Amino acid sequence: MLPQVFIAASELLKKKIPCAGHFLAPKRLWLKRVSTPNCDLVVCFPPGTDDQFLLWLLPKLKQSTGLTIHVRYHASTQSSAFYVTASNQVLLHAAEEYHLSKALKPSKGGGLKEFFVQEQDFYEGSESAEHFFTTEERQWLVLRVLESVRAKKEELRVIPSVTLLEGQPIVPKFLTSGVISQVFPIHEPPALERLQQTWVQDIFAKQPLDEITEYFGVKIGMYFAWLGHYTTALSIPAVVGFIFWTIQDVGYVVFSIFNVVWVTTYLQAWKRYSAELAFRWGTLDQRDDLLAEPRPLFR
C-alpha cells in the first residue's frame, strides 16, 4: 500500500512541477535501468514523438553512416533517445574525411599531421584501437558523421510540419525545428574525476590545459587558457594602479598612459600565446572552410 502512495504522490507533484519529473523517477526504474556501453552521443526526442518517425529515422541513420545506435525509452520524461557510438573503422574513415590532426611518432618526424588511413601506423597510439582517439575526438567525429546524413528526394515530406530540401542534412534541420530536442555527448566519469582533483580542487596549481582540451575540446581549452592568461596579466595594472592611487592627481594621468601601453602589450602577448596553443593542439592551420555545410540547393 505504501509504495502506491509514494507513486501517486510523485505523479501529483510532477503535474504541479513539470521539471520535477527528472528527479522523481520511481525506484523500480533506477533498479532496472540498463546502461549503454561505449556511448558517445545521445539524441533526445520530445515527449510524444511518433513511433513511426523513430522507426524511419533509426534505420536511415544506421544504413547511411554505419553508426551503432541503441534506443532507450525514458519513463521519467516519457521520451525516447538514441544512444550513438561508432566502430573503430567508421572513426578512422571519418578522421580522414574531416582532416583530423594526430601526433606522429618521433621516428616519423613528430609533430601533428592530418590523419590518413593508409598511414595509420605512423601515428602515436595506433597500436591500441581503443585509445587511439580521445573522448573529445570520438564525440566530434560521431557528431560529424551523424550530421552528414542528408535527405533524399522521396523523404522531403517525411514530417508534415518540417520541409526538407534535397541534399539537406536532416539532423541539424530536425534539431532547429524541434523534432529532435537535443544532442549532447556523454561524460567520462574517470576523466572528470581526474580533472576535479588536478584542476577544480587544486586551486593554486597551474591549469592542466592539455587535459582540459583533450576532454572538452579546443574551444573550451582556449577559453580557460585566455582566462588564466588575462587574470595573471591583470596583476600588473592592479599593483601599478595601487601605487599611482597614492599619488592622486598626477598618478591618474600616468596610470591612464600606462593602461594604454599595458593593453597593447597584453594583446600582442596573447596573440603569441594563443598561436602557440593552437599549434600545440593542431588548430593553427585548420581548414574550417572545408567543414562548412554547402547550401542545400548547391549543384
Description:
Belongs to the anoctamin family. Keywords: Membrane, Transmembrane, Transmembrane helix. The chain crosses the membrane at residues 223-244, 250-270. The protein has two domains: 41-186, no CATH class; 206-285, no CATH class. 50% of the residues lie in helices and 9% in strands. It has twelve helices and six strands. The strands form two sheets. A four-stranded antiparallel sheet has the order 2-3-1-6. Strand 4 (101-103) and strand 5 (112-114) form a beta hairpin. The radius of gyration is 25 Å and the shape is globular.
Average pLDDT, to the nearest integer? 82
* Helical content class: 40-55%
What ranges have pLDDT less than 50 throughout 5 or more consecutive residues?
Answer: 16-34
Strand order of the largest sheet: 2-3-1-6
Total number of strands: 6
Shape: globular
Number of helices: 12
Summarize the structure.
The chain is α+β, with helices and mostly antiparallel strands and 299 residues long. Helix content is 50%, strand content 9%. The protein has two domains: 41-186, no CATH class; 206-285, no CATH class.
Give the topology.
Blueprint: H1 2-16, H2 27-31, E1 41-44, H3 51-65, E2 68-74, E3 79-85, H4 88-97, E4 101-103, E5 112-114, H5 135-147, H6 170-177, E6 182-185, H7 189-200, H8 209-216, H9 218-233, H10 235-245, H11 249-280, H12 288-291
Antiparallel strand pairs: 1-3, 1-6, 2-3, 4-5
